[in-house]
């Protein structure tokens, strides 16, 4: 299985914070790394964070050190903290800076609620766990909610908590240098639908 040829790539940044959902970004980061992207983790500070599943992770850099111009993509996983405090609001503000700079942002599960509170979903088509989940944030983008597994609108990719494979598919498609359209469809069918026939296409 080979990636599309590229000349240069900036790192992909994976946001990490206490209670981050381990399973939501695994397909995305594993395959981006396999296809040549450097994955760098960014946390509120330089201190280790602990995932929902109890994994203790030492981040590569703090949020204050992150710059959109030095990144190919920012990935925001879900976490209990998105719904229980304002501690992660700085990550939503960073997502705004990325989008303003034309750098893609992927948000899944609770991170979509954080972006809704920041106003980033008011004028972009998006999805999440459910419409009422985002409605509880008081955001103004309810009419742009799409009942879909994952959604890309320009530089913003969103998905609900049960769709890590679709989330990865949309990110790969947005980056555009990972898999061509035929292989991307085969990748999704293999890992989402367990379609063994897709394996041959993916590896041809």
Summarize the structure.
With 204 residues, this protein is an alpha/beta fold. It has 8 helices and 9 strands.
Characterise this structure.
By secondary structure, the chain is α/β, with parallel strands linked by helices. 34% of the residues lie in helices and 15% in strands. It has helices at 26-34, 81-84, 89-100, 110-117, 131-135, 164-175, 181-193, 197-202; strands at residues 12-15, 39-43, 49-50, 56-57, 61-62, 73-76, 105-108, 150-153, 156-159. Helix 1 (26-34) links the parallel strand 1 and strand 2. The longest helix is centred in the last third of the chain and has 13 residues, at 181-193. The protein starts with 11 loop residues before the first strand and ends with a helix.
Lay out the secondary structure.
Layout: E1 12-15, H1 26-34, E2 39-43, E3 49-50, E4 56-57, E5 61-62, E6 73-76, H2 81-84, H3 89-100, E7 105-108, H4 110-117, H5 131-135, E8 150-153, E9 156-159, H6 164-175, H7 181-193, H8 197-202
Helix pairs in contact: 1-6, 3-4, 6-7
Tags for this entry?
7-stranded mixed β-sheet; alpha/beta; 204 residues; globular
Q: Strand order within the widest sheet? A: 5-2-1-6-7-9-8
Structure classification: alpha/beta
Share of helix, binned: 25-40%
Mind summarizing the main beta sheet?
Answer: 7 strands, mixed
Query: Which geometry do the CA atoms define?
Result: globular
Average pLDDT level:
95
Q: What is the H/E string?
A: EHEEEEEHHEHHEEHHH
Q: List low-confidence stretches.
A: none
Proportion of β residues?
15-25%
Quickly count the helices.
8
Total number of strands: 9
């Amino acid at each position: 299985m080979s990636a599309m040829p590229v000349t240069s790539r900036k790192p992909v940044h994976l946001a990490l914070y206490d209670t981050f959902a381990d399973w939501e970004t695994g397909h995305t980061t594993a395959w981006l790394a396999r296809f040549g992207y450097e994955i760098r983790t960014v946390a509120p500070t330089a201190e280790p964070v602990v995932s929902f599943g109890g994994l203790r992770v030492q981040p590569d850099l703090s949020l204050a050190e992150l710059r959109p111009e030095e990144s190919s993509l920012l990935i925001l996983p879900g976490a209990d903290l998105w719904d229980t405090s304002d501690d992660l609001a700085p990550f939503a503000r960073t997502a705004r800076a990325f989008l303003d700079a034309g750098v893609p942002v992927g948000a899944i599960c609770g991170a979509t609620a954080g972006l809704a509170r920041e106003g980033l979903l008011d004028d972009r088509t998006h999805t999440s766990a459910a419409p009422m989940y985002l409605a509880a944030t008081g955001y103004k983008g309810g009419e742009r909610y799409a009942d879909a597994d994952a959604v890309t609108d320009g530089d913003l990719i969103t998905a609900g908590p049960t769709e890590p494979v679709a989330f990865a598919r949309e990110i790969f498609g947005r980056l555009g240098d990972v898999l061509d359209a035929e292989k991307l469809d085969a990748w999704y069918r293999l890992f989402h639908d367990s379609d063994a026939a897709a394996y041959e296409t993916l590896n041809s």
